[in-house]
Prior knowledge:
The protein is α+β, with helices and mostly antiparallel strands.
Amino acid sequence: MCATMATLRIIIIVAMALIAAVSTAVGHNITEILSEYPEYSVFNNYLSQTKLDDEINGRQTITVLVFNNSVLKKFVSNETLSVVKIVLSIHVLLDYFDMQKLLNIGGGTVITTTLYQTTGNAIGSTGFVNITDLNGGKVGFGSAAPGSKLDSLFIKSVKQIPYNISVVEIDLPIIAPGILTGGAPSSAVNITSLLETAGCKTFTKLITDTGVLKIYESVATKGLTVFAPSDAAFTSGGLPNLNKLTNAEVVSLLLYHASSNYIPRGSLKSVKNPIRTLATNTAGKFDLTVQTNGDSVTLVSGVDSSRVESTALDSVPISIFKIGNVLLPTELFTKSPPPVPSPAPETSTRSSPSPAASAPRSIDSSPSPVNGTSPIRSPPIPPTRPTPPTASISSPIDGPAPAENPTADTGNASNGGDVIKVPVIFLALVTVSISGII
């Protein structure tokens, strides 16, 4: 009994520990945190517009350096959103710093990585921040790039969820060298040049020749995300013959590879609902779903899937990704259904279905383009399985073959037309009982 009680106590302790661990692992939401502080409303609004909130919420250990509305307006009011995103991403540190940790640097200096460094666009040390103890209870922040000043000072600790997220206020933004001159408006982005440099020349030629490029450019000012297949994707052995598509279907296929929303990688990893593409219309969904596994992101069309290989551009409001496969929408391509199984053979020879009625139709197992002129086609209707005939229990032809010894095997006896079935084991027991009595 004592051993049982001890085991039960251990189980309870372990269960409570697991519950505590799960409760501390609950994610954070930076926009909800900052919504409690009106003095940071401009900062919070920019996080949403640039989609940096998705990046922050997708990280487990992070520190956000904030500053009040008047300070932020002074520095970035005349900048494009792409520049604002760079500036704010430098203020997102990939480590946990609360007031105690900042005040105990011990007279030294800490160089920490920022979210800007993860974009791959940071030049030199511009993606790192220098945190230095200035003595007298003062902590300075500045760019780690050579020649930068420590002119941003720690003000106060705003919010902490140890050791998940920390929000700290500083008095001035950290401005890395060359950052405020590094953003180009969306109208100046050369989509074809970026795609060709990324290794998507075949896709570039297709969108140019069909006029789809102009559609991309027309929505780019408000938001555009392009999923461009690599050149290797068009020579893949499993790709259907795209030359069989009509012109309208080719256009739909190319529009299917873009969305009229700005979806950077961080937001792509957190997408829950299907993504509407430029091909979406009243005649078909033409949507995509997203699957993530760690840092890996895969787009799923319903017919095939493609991994996001790299980011060719992330400049608000445009994202361009290079993907490994051509995405095949279900509205243009269908997966062949599995063959319909043949009905089980019947014992009756009189009512058996003919072979022609029961044989399944042969369907090619690989995805194939739908023929015709319309870009929307319904999937093929599988053949109807014939209804098995019902055997007549009163016909001796449909019944089982008679046993060599009907009485001993099945115990059948005629009694006014009713059939009584007596198991063989019951007859054996009766025989043994009678023998004992005799």
